[in-house]
Amino acid sequence: RVDFGFPAALCNIHFAVTLLGVELLYRAGMYQQVNVNIKDPNFIAIVLVVGVVTPLNNTSLKLNSIGFYQIFKLLVTPGVVLLEYILDGKTLSCTRIWCLTAVCAFVLLSSASDTDFSPFGIVAASLWVPLAAAYKVQWGRVKRRYNCSTLALMRAVLPYAIVVQTLISPLVDPPGLFEFQWTSEACFWIGLSGLCAFMVNFSGFLVMGNIGALAHVLLGQLKTAIVMVGATILFGSSYGGSQLLGAAGAIIFIVHYSYVTIEEKEVLEKDRGDHKAQMLPFIQSK
Predict the structure, then answer these.
(1) How far, in Å, CA of 255 to CA of 259, rounded?
(2) With contact defined as beta carbons under 8 Å apart, do 156 and 50 qualify?
(3) In this structure, is the dihedral angle defined by the CA atoms of residues 255, 258, 262 and 263, taken in order, positive or negative?
(4) Most buried of 222, 228, 249, 253, CB within 10 angstroms?
(5) pLDDT at residue 47 is higher than 50
């Protein structure tokens, strides 16, 4: 409804509305403040990636087709796996690796028919992929480091991230921001997008911090696949057979990945419990 073609500026508006919502929840006593060390390299890293990755993401979406964007988005999955292995020594079982490979293959199948792109769009997408992987992994690492809630970390990070986004705006946004006509309709729709961004940002940070980076990647793919299948069933949207097959296959293997992950976690917890039981001292009754 509104042609607001300034990705970094839009991200700043979304982050400002999100920060306002987070601050209101803090004033209402919903969570406690966290004291962070602004000189901590881990904190500096999360501020930089949060401030840069969202404008690059929106720029990639603006300059490339959705299908091309989805194909590049697939590269975030191996990036997350590699970073978690390098930084935290996390590994995946063969079953989970095969599930992730199948998800990527089916998403590629559903997106391959829509691959329009631009040279600058490729540059934006190429820069976005490693930063997106770092963003998803680092958020959880910083949250564990400071042992705080998601809202508390958002309140600490977002003010600095807004500064970073403001600094990179001239590199990302085209000229003409100050000439934009702020009509009542434009203010309504941009403000509404800010409220939606608050809910999306909070849920996304919550998943990354409490569940994991890979879960956030897969939920994004699951959302896209469900929208395609749901739009076809409910509204008769026209998608090709390969697109629907890819979406359905992605949904199946994401669900299977979740099942395997839960099953492996239960086995691991059971093994830990048995190990602790074996280490308990034997006490004889008198």
Answers:
(1) 6
(2) no
(3) positive
(4) 253
(5) yes
